[in-house]
Amino acid sequence: MTSSKSIDVITVGHALVDIRIMVRDFPGSDQESPVLQQSWGAGGSAVNVAIGVRRLGATSGIIAKIGFDNFGRIVVDELMREGVDMRGLRISWRNTGFTIVGINSLGDIIMYGYKGVAEELEPGEIDEELVSIARHMHIASLRIDTSLKAVEMAKRYGLTVSWDPGRVLSMKGLDALKDLLKKIDIVMLNEQEAYNMTGERDYTKASEKIRSVGPKIVIVKLGKEGSYVSSEEFTGKIQAFTVDKIVDTTGAGDAFASGFIVSMLRGYNIRKAVIYANATAALKITR
Which fold would CATH assign to domain 7-164+241-285? Predict the structure, then answer.
């Protein structure tokens, strides 16, 4: 990608460790289920999107907080291996967050999350140097005050901004999020989050409500049904790709975000960018 700025995308949000275990069936109370496979690695939306962007051939950096511990080292090692700019990482003496993900033979998922220091990233810890050399900022599932500071800094340096609110922030509702939404260019959220934010069960109406506040593009991710886009350029539903076998849906939304952001930076129109994003999400769930 040709640009006077050296970083294509910076992500702002959570850096965690994902611990995945695969079982045949989820156990009931006072029962045990043997673990068939297990793995662990860096996770959290900021990490996932930063790595996803790198794997799609663009440059990326991350702004997040981790602990000075073994889990923090896992995050650093993986980001270093993937070539993500880490100058925006902040280190705490407290613990790095983690998520335990259980997956059964049907592909169903249960998750147990501990945020650790991930949510303690303060507004004053946003790395201005990194922001100044980037083209686009993606914010995911991060507290409002730090998100607002990040957006304001991004706009000062001419970045476009995308935002994935996550479940917790979406439940605050549209009124509580208006100051942030007014400054956002692109909102990506799932159907439940769109309802949480607007009170509208119809995702087409929910997306219009969100866009009326300020964002130019609102994308509602619909899982196996694809995605719904609301924008001036294109409005409509785009079907998902069919896959032979679903292995793990964890991180599919982050893969979608990576694909959409990179394709938009490459000059794709919105419809083609969403098709590309659907493809990256489909590939993610097969691995």
Answer: UDP-N-acetylmuramoyl-L-alanine:D-glutamate ligase (3.40.1190)
Which residues share a beta bridge with 19?
A: 40, 100
Complete DSSP assignment for 131-174: HHTEEEEEEES--HHHHHHHHHHHHHTT-EEEEE-HHHHHTT-H
62: its two tokens: 């991350």
Tell me how far apart the alpha carbons of residues 176 and 170 are, in angstroms, rounded to a whole number.
9
> What digits encode the pLDDT tens for the residues 66-110?
999 999 999 999 999 999 999 999 999 999 999 999 999 887 889
* Alpha-carbon distances of 112 from 98, 104, 280, rounded to whole Å: 8, 15, 25
The DSSP call for residue 15 is: -
Q: The whole model's pTM is what?
A: 0.94
Phi-psi category of residue 253: left, alpha or beta, with phi > 0 → left and psi -120 to 50 → alpha: alpha
